[in-house]
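Deliverable D4.2, example record:
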Amino acid sequence: MYYQEYCTSGRYSLLISIVVTFIVAVIGIGIGLVSGYVEGYIDIIIMRFVDLIMSFPYIVFVIVVVSMIDGGLHNLIFSNGFNKLDKLCKSNAEYSNFYEK
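Output generated by the structure prediction step:
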């Protein structure tokens, strides 16, 4: 009876989760590795920006971004991906710093 609605919502959920995971993996690992490798002022600036992202609650950030821009699938993916970058950036930067010393 509701099979079509379940399949449609499942398709969008899978699309959002796969794209967000890919975006976070590519951008987060890149930023974290650059931050860990370069060190100095660039590392400090990148990590303070990541700390700024981490200071906002997740769901509030997503609601504000989606409501300020347009409500749509692309903006939802962008806001989810942008908010998930922090943990991966931090872990890669600390990992890079650990093995250089």
